[in-house]
Fold:
Amino acid sequence: MKTMKSHKRPSIKKLVAILLAMLLAGFIAFKVYSHYKDTPSDTITSGATAEQVKEEEAANAASKAAIINDSKPSDNNSPPPTSIKSSVVISSATSSGVSAYVTGVFEEEGACTVTATQDSKSYTKTSTGFQNASYTQCAPIIWDAALTSGTWSIVVIYESKTTNSSQSTTIKV
Structure:
């Protein structure tokens, strides 16, 4: 005669503990995902002092002036590139790196130059653009060392044979 093994049901306490552990893991995963997904490219600090706002506006004005000066044609009598309207979009700017793409063009071999400036400190890195879906993606820029604390002005300039465009933002590290 065969004997039947009796299977014990897990206790309610064990089931509740397992359920709570699963909920906690899901909550942590959601928080991590939403942090990366919703990280804004512009950092807005509520309670910023008027002086901090003025400093940020001055940094933005200096960045815009630099962009305008850099985009003026040189005196080497070379014809300017064919101008296709394009726009740089900074999708992520953090202390460790910058990601951006360019709308209005779908091409290879353009140059994406990213400059981070804070007071007298300035870091510049360049990557190449490549076709991605219906726009040109800049290969992500990773800083050699993380940016130090404070407010940084970030400028992304895209240049190719067909277009030139730029975008700037500030981040608070």
Summary: DSSP finds two helices and eight strands in the chain. The beta strands are 87-93, 97-103, 111-118, 121-132, 135-138, 141-142, 151-159, 164-172. Confidence is low (pLDDT under 50) at residues 37-46.
